[in-house]
Amino acid sequence: MINSVNDNYRILTEHINLTSIDLDTKSTNEIVKIFSEADKEPQKAVENSIPEIVKAIDLITLRLQDNGRLFYIGTGTSGRLGVLDASECPPTFCTNPDLVQGIIAGGIPSLTRSSESLEDISEIAISDLKDRNFSNRDVLIGITASGRTPYVFGALNYSKSINALTISISSVPETDSTLDNDIDIRLITGPEVLAGSTRLKAGTATKMALNIISTSVMIKLGKVYGNRMIDLSVSNDKLIDRAIGILFDIASVDKETAVQLLKDTNGSVKLSLLIALSGMDVIDAKQLLNDSKGNLRTALTTLNVIKL
Fold it and tell me: Which residues form the SIS domain (predicted)?
């Protein structure tokens, strides 16, 4: 995180990185090595933020268990990363698309083309949240690498005003930007190889943090058993093969039995596992899962069946 002595008036994400000062004169090999070395910083940034990330995961889980929803909001790269993480939850964890939502300034068109002019309008963010009936049961993660984006600030302030759980993710220290939220995650990755281009290290650290947060929340919601995604959406050949593999690994059933179980349970890997491990019928297994709040390990523990 090396910066020039002339950068004192700039926020950290706009500082000049001296390791890449002559970037345009470097060979391809040298350029790649500079990037490779710089990309060690996002891992350190996430590691340094573990306490805040842990707190976020635990509090988000409580909200979602109480019928709340999780929203990401941002502009540009930050917004796209939020939309990407949200869009991966239904196929990976078979969640309702409403449970985790990504909002980007300018909406869907902004996913493929720039909409910088909207970054400065905080009122639009409030309208975007209201359009989704955002409430005090919900969680908002505002993503702003600079810690200064008006669109994100507007959303965070509105979220606080209605007592929703409010979390910020930024890449600047508190001296550059004050973010007074329930949880303040600072992913300090330093000056970018290409000065100011926060789609690089800051974006990488943000993607890592969002991966950890959403996956950990889903684990706590009972959508994972061991390290298998037992609530995956069996919607194509690859995922069918994965589901069969999970049933084989955990319940030791052959392919023919696995396929039949998936047919009987309308593609539910979790329910199929419970039936295979307990010998219960579909109706009783469904009831036990409901009583166990969808947690397979809890259901198996109730039956004194321990596997994996």
Answer: 60-223
The fold of the 42-220 domain, in CATH, is Rossmann fold (3.40.50)
Q: What is the DSSP string of 205-249?
A: HHHHHHHHHHHHHHHHTT--BTTB-TT----SHHHHHHHHHHHHH
* Residue 295 region by backbone torsions, left for phi larger than 0, else alpha for psi between -120 and 50, else beta: beta
Catalytic residue among 41, 88, 123, 256: 88
- The residue extents of the domains of the chain are 42-220, 237-302
d(CA 201, CA 282): 48
> Which candidate, 148, 78, 159, 99, places its Cα nearest to that of 126?
159
Asked if 173 contacts 13 with a C-beta cutoff of 8 angstroms, the reply is no
pTM for the model: 0.91
212-260: pLDDT as tens digits:
999 999 999 999 999 999 998 888 899 899 999 999 999 999 999 999 9
d(CA 205, CA 79): 14
Q: What is the 3-state secondary structure (H, E, C) of 41-74?
A: HHHHHHHHCHHHHHHHHHHHHHHHHCCCCEEEEE
Q: Report angle CA 190, 196, 197 to the nearest 5 degrees.
A: 100
**Residue position matching structure tokens 């008036």:** 9
> Is 41 among the catalytic positions?
no
Catalytic residue of the set 47, 119, 123, 192: 119
Which CATH number describes the domain made up of 237-302? 1.10.8.1080
